[in-house]
């Protein structure tokens, strides 16, 4: 082959490479993916509706990095005051995907969701919603079966089955008095007896510190606005520690059913998503800055992160002090400090000084995040898993509602309760960066499948629904109970929204 032919072949190959290389970097808006509950705002009512977008090139390959241009998202529609007022928030996850969430505060009609990229509509945009859309603040409960169907709640969570196994039949007429007597320890236990009857909420609380009942009030208020709950009665533990301990007298009388935000291997407590993640669900795009959607925004790309384990928190467990010791011994591996001393005040000189709080999103400047129990499970775990750092989790008898689904070394790196292997695990992660990144990515997929707002709503409704089937005594509003009232902003009881049944 002569020089000239060789050169032209080289040029041809170069040309193909350039063409292929550049075209594969361009987003093909029509092939890109758009999905999520926010596409059905008439059926799935959430405080903030959300949609996922994943950029795809013309060969159908998903992007792994943010595409070069920003998406343009807008909502058209009409409300009683003219245009449908909507706030829109865009969360770039930095892996080729993004979340768009939006909040409407008025009843709107003729809604069109427009999602564009580089001037072209993405996927099937514009999405036209035929039915009226109600804000979550409206009182528009759907029938239970319709709601479960519309929200695509999958089969009951296995955690619900596990937790309810010891409670096949519950006769509150029989056990209520003794239950209240047993846990009436005002200084140390705070519990509330809730009744939901005809979709109205009532409660009576026992204990000194009952302020946290506001979380359950808000949850039930939101749920009853969107779904007609079955009649139920339950006891909610407002404290950290699970109450219905295994062993002891319960071997004969059977355990008392108590709903808690934290479960443990040695208790029968029935777990609900924590007040923390539930509040973040109810208040996303509202009062809270940190929620399961906002935490997914990529601020610090993986390759720019500092390769250290970061930790901040209170002194609520001895291992947290031990962590400070380790961090001092290995400043190349850790950046860990206590923010408040309360439980071990006398050891502040030794394990202090305290440092100022930093924004949770700034934790993700660091590649490795540590989850160490506080008094019970550390309720930050969902947020750590949703961020783009690798999570190291201490072995623990305490759990939240979703822990049993997490697989060690798939979603997080486990370490021993006494922290004795933590340094080795960190060294392993530093030496296996690809594997570390993969675990981080799998954790974020887990979050997307299990801990998004719709999942938190489903879990509550499914648990309450299963619970209602086990109550053998009649559900009645009991003497001394206080009504928790809706502050109804709008109401669609007059329309036929409730009666419509798609099943
Ligand atoms: C934007 O769109 C124009 C016109 O369709 C196209 O030529 C160009 O390559 C696109 N740019 C990107 C970065 O997608
Ligand atoms: C529930 O307990 C009450 C009080 O002990 C009893 O009278 C009632 O028959 C029980 N109900 C059922 C369905 O077992
Ligand atoms: C630890 O982290 C904080 C917050 O990012 C930072 O200000 C500080 O300089 C870090 N300390 C060390 C020793 O790197």
TrEMBL record:
Q: Where are the Filamin repeats?
A: 24-131
Q: Where does this one sit in the cell?
A: Endoplasmic reticulum lumen
The record's section on Pfam families has: Filamin, Glyco_transf_90
Alphabetical keyword list: Endoplasmic reticulum, Glycoprotein, Glycosyltransferase, Signal, Transferase
* Gene Ontology MF, one: glucosyltransferase activity
Q: What is this protein called?
A: Glycosyl transferase CAP10 domain-containing protein
The opening ranks of the lineage are: Eukaryota, Metazoa, Ecdysozoa, Arthropoda, Hexapoda
Glycosyltransferase in keyword set: yes
The pathway entry for this protein reads as: Protein modification
């Amino acid at each position: 082959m002569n020089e000239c032919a060789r050169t032209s072949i080289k040029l041809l190959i170069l040309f193909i490479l350039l063409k292929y290389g550049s075209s594969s970097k361009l987003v093909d808006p029509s092939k890109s993916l758009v999905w999520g509950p926010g596409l059905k705002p008439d059926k799935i009512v959430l405080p903030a509706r959300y949609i996922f977008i994943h950029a795809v090139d013309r060969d159908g390959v998903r992007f792994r990095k943010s595409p070069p241009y920003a998406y343009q998202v807008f909502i058209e529609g009409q409300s009683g005051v003219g245009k449908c007022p909507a706030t829109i928030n865009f969360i770039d996850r930095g892996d080729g995907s993004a979340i768009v969430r939006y909040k409407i505060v008025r009843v709107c009609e003729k809604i069109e969701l427009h999602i564009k990229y580089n001037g072209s509509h993405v996927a099937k945009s514009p999405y036209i919603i035929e039915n009226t859309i109600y804000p979550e603040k409206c009182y528009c409960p759907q029938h239970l079966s319709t709601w479960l169907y519309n929200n695509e709640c999958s089969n009951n969570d296995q955690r619900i089955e596990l937790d309810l196994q010891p409670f096949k039949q519950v006769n509150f007429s029989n056990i209520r008095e003794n239950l209240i007597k047993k846990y009436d320890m005002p200084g140390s236990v705070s519990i509330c007896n809730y009744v939901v009857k005809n979709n109205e909420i009532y409660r009576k609380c026992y204990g000194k510190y009952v302020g946290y009942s506001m979380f359950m009030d808000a949850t039930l208020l939101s749920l009853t606005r969107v779904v007609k709950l079955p009649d139920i009665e339950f006891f909610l533990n407002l404290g950290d520690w699970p109450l219905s301990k295994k062993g002891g007298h319960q071997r004969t009388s059977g355990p008392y059913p108590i709903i808690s935000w934290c479960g443990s291997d040695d208790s029968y407590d029935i777990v609900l998503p924590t007040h923390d993640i539930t509040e973040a669900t109810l208040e996303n795009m509202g009062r809270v800055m940190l929620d399961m959607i906002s935490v997914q925004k990529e601020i610090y790309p993986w390759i720019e992160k500092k390769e250290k384990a970061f930790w901040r928190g209170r002194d609520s467990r001895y291992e947290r002090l031990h962590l400070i010791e380790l961090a001092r011994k290995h400043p190349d591996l850790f950046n860990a400090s206590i923010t408040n001393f309360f439980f071990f005040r006398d050891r502040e000189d030794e394990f202090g000084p305290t440092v100022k709080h930093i924004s949770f999103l700034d934790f993700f400047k660091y590649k490795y995040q540590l989850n160490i129990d506080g008094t019970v499970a550390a309720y930050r775990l969902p947020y750590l898993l949703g961020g783009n750092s690798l999570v190291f989790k201490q072995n623990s008898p305490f759990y939240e509602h979703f822990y049993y689904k997490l697989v060690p070394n798939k979603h997080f790196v486990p370490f021993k309760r006494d922290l004795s292997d933590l340094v080795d695990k960190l060294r392993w992660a530093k030496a296996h960066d690809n594997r570390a990144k993969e675990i981080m990515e799998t954790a974020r997929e887990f979050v997307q499948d299990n801990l998004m707002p719709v999942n938190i709503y489903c879990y509550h409704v499914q648990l309450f629904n299963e619970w209602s089937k086990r109550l053998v005594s009649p559900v009645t509003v009991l003497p001394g109970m206080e009504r928790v009232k809706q502050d109804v902003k709008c109401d669609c009881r007059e329309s036929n929204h409730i009666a419509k049944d798609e099943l």
